[in-house]
């Protein structure tokens, strides 16, 4: 008796690699029943054995490493990547992540593991704008600036998807489209009201860059309404902008449960059938959730057509084919990535490099840092010092060899140094036991290193931050009062010995009182598996701090507009009138940099060339982040006070100088008017190049003075 052929060995057209991909997709769709088609439009795809179609779950995450799927390299949280201002590093990190993702996928397939998080369609990156410090998910973003977010996001997507002309290494997804950044408690029913100017100036540029430049494979719709339309069923967002204006060719997925929200919470539809039909007809292809089960009934009620379903399915199958799911693995280079890459020493070094480059030094009184390694006594205290949780942030993977901050500090010190460690203070409330075994000893040591801050228990997504009273958001952006009082007590008992404060967290943490009493302050984010090593290297001089704040740190929550207001007035460095505690782009070094010889001229291809000389006048070889800002003739009168238009990380040895050059297209100087159109203003633009946001606050905190010029851009471009 002849052996029966398995379905994937049969002569199905969709497995015939000699045929054009579009023909193969059409053939597979034609072979499916309506029920089978609908089963493929939800994140958990049912298998279709008779057609050789395997089970697959589209839901996967890799925000800063392969997440929720076993061992993988845990890179620093996304906000830390933003703080590096390093697009090359972003590409390298994403490449490492997708290498591990492919290797893990190859193993899982052989095991028959088709579970959620075991696939190759990653709902990353989050390119929403961190418009308000209270948003708990801001840690997932690259910060408050659309340009920085665009550049880091494009590099990340390119690294994740690979450069093979025939196959995707992994499929990236730009989320959450479009106007989405809190509040978490109301995200399922909230209506984000936004002007055309703010929409096109702030909320859309990163998405546009990922679609047009990086060719991102997927876009995820947001939970909220945008100007009254459900973001996951908005013809304006999904058709007019994404498909028609930007030419998006991938697939569109809902946030999880967002189709249910359309009828249940937004009340824009009366039934699941109506909600599903609205989404499909608007261009959404994939439902994360089960609401699309109602499409069968929607067909019967003539709310949708089978052609509508076929179109959505075609978009999804195109992604599967590009990932190689229906091809012989011989021709797919990504199908042969070795499992040796997972958690490799090279990836671990990359995680360390990212963590070191992300750390932001905001105070260093009398050059107390770097510390000597042969101090006689060091006291380490604080609730986050030995806390593994602060390495992770959210949407994280796991690793069996993490280094916490206490470990990193201890590893640097001499074997003869007396080291004391005490937890010292509960993180979010006063100590239950009033006895104090800590502050006296901490104050008496040669140096006290206090590791304070917050973690993912109090800031994060709606249901993940289990210690949050506000579903992951922070209504108070200060360091918790219990921690403030604890540090004040140490300082009051001290006799001039240095107090070094290390702060963990993924969002702007206002520390005006701590800034006044501490000798040195570092923001270290959620720094990943090598976070402790990175902090130790920075504290003791094996690495020089070079990170920059990817957001503004206000002095108080009272300096912010209402959280629910999506207008950019009074928000971020672009429109904030009140003096910040720390400006966007700010960060100190152990060395000293000076900017000189700024020059602006017409360049090739209708671009403007900007040059500046950076001199390292300090004693440390170090990296500097050169930043270029523009200010239009209408700055402060409708246009932003400043706009970041270019940045470059450059290594400058001590005592040497380097010339940095930027090539800027005309678009870099355009402004968005009230109608949402980009225009070039008449008159002189001011241009700055320096190591931080221009302004008195930056220089008062120790930043290098920016070079400044005024230029009639329109005249220069003629």
Automatic annotation (TrEMBL):
Listed SUPFAM superfamilies: (Trans)glycosidases, Beta-D-glucan exohydrolase, C-terminal domain
> What name goes with this protein?
Glycosyl hydrolase
UniProt key word Hydrolase: yes
Q: Lineage of the native species?
A: Bacteria, Pseudomonadati, Bacteroidota, Bacteroidia, Marinilabiliales
User: Keywords on this record?
Assistant: Hydrolase, Signal
Would the keyword Signal be found if you checked this record's keyword annotation?
yes
Which Gene Ontology MF annotations are present? hydrolase activity
Which Gene3D superfamilies would you find in this protein's record? Glycoside hydrolase family 3 C-terminal domain, Glycoside hydrolase, family 3, N-terminal domain, Immunoglobulins
Task: Give residue ranges for domain Fibronectin type III-like.
Answer: 624-693
Which family is this protein grouped under?
Answer: Belongs to the glycosyl hydrolase 3 family.
Q: Which Pfam families match?
A: Fn3-like (PF14310), Glyco_hydro_3 (PF00933), Glyco_hydro_3_C (PF01915)
């Amino acid at each position: 008796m002849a052996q029966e052929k398995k379905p994937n060995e049969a002569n199905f057209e969709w497995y015939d690699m000699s045929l054009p991909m579009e023909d193969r997709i059409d053939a597979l769709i034609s072979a499916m029943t309506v029920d089978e088609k609908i089963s493929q439009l939800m994140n958990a795809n049912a298998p279709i054995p008779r057609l050789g179609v395997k089970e697959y779950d589209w839901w996967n995450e890799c925000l800063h490493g392969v997440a929720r799927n076993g061992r993988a390299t845990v890179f620093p949280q996304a906000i830390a990547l933003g703080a590096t201002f390093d697009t090359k590093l972003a590409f390298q990190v994403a490449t490492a992540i997708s290498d591990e993702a492919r290797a893990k996928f190859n193993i899982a397939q052989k095991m028959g593991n088709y579970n959620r998080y075991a696939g190759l369609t990653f709902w990353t990156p989050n390119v929403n704008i961190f418009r308000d410090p209270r948003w708990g998910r801001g840690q997932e973003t690259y910060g408050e600036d659309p340009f920085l977010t665009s550049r880091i996001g494009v590099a990340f997507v390119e690294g994740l998807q690979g450069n093979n002309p025939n196959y995707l290494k992994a499929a990236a997804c730009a989320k959450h489209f479009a106007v989405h950044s809190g509040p978490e408690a109301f995200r399922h029913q909230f209506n984000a009201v936004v002007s055309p100017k703010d929409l096109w100036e702030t909320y859309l540029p990163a998405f546009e860059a990922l679609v047009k430049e990086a060719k991102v494979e997927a876009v995820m719709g947001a939970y909220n309404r945008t100007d009254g339309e459900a973001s996951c069923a908005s013809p304006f967002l999904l058709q007019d902008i994404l498909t028609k204006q930007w030419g998006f060719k991938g697939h569109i997925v809902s946030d999880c449960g967002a189709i249910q929200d359309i009828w249940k919470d937004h009340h824009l539809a009366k039934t699941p059938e109506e909600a599903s039909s609205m989404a499909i007809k608007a261009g959404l292809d994939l439902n994360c959730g089960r609401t699309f089960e109602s499409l069968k009934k929607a067909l019967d009620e003539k709310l949708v057509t089978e052609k509508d379903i076929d179109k959505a399915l075609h978009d999804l199958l195109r992604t599967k084919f590009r990932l190689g799911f229906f091809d012989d693995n011989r021709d797919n280079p990504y199908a042969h990535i070795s499992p040796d890459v997972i958690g490799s020493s090279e990836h671990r070094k990359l995680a360390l490099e990212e963590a070191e480059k992300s750390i932001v030094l905001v105070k260093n009184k009398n050059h107390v840092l770097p510390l000597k390694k042969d101090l006689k006594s060091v006291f380490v205290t604080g609730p986050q010092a030995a806390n593994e949780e602060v390495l992770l942030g959210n949407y994280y993977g796991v690793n069996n060899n993490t280094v916490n901050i206490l470990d990193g500090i201890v590893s640097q010190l001499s074997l003869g140094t007396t080291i004391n460690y005490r937890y010292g203070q509960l993180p979010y409330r006063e100590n239950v036991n009033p006895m104090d075994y800590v502050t006296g000893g901490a104050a008496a040591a040669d140096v006290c290193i206090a590791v304070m801050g917050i973690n993912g228990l109090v800031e994060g997504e709606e249901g993940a931050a289990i210690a949050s009273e506000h579903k992951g958001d922070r209504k108070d952006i200060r360091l918790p009062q219990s921690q403030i009082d604890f540090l004040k007590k140490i300082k009051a008992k001290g006799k001039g010995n240095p107090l070094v404060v290390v702060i963990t967290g993924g969002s702007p943490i206002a520390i005006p009182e701590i800034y006044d009493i501490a000798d040195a302050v570092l923001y270290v984010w959620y720094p990943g598996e090598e976070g402790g090593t990175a902090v130790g290297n920075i504290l003791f001089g094996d690495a020089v701090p070079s990170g920059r704040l990817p957001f503004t740190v206000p002095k108080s929550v009272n300096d912010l507009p209402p959280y629910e207001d999506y207008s950019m007035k009074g928000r971020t460095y672009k429109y904030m009138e009140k003096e910040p505690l720390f400006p966007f782009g700010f960060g100190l070094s152990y060395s000293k940099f000076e900017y000189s010889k700024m020059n602006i001229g017409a360049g090739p291809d209708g671009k403007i060339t900007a040059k500046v000389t950076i001199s390292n006048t300090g004693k440390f070889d170090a990296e500097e982040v050169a930043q270029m800002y523009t200010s239009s003739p209408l700055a402060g009168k409708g246009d932003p006070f400043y706009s970041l238009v270019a940045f470059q990380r450059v290594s400058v040895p001590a005592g040497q100088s380097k010339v940095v050059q930027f090539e800027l297209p005309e678009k870099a100087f355009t402004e968005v008017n009230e109608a949402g159109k980009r225009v070039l203003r008449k008159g002189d633009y001011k241009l700055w190049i320096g190591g931080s946001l221009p302004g008195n606050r930056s220089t008062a905190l120790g930043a290098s003075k920016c070079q400044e010029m005024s230029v009639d851009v329109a005249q220069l471009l003629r």
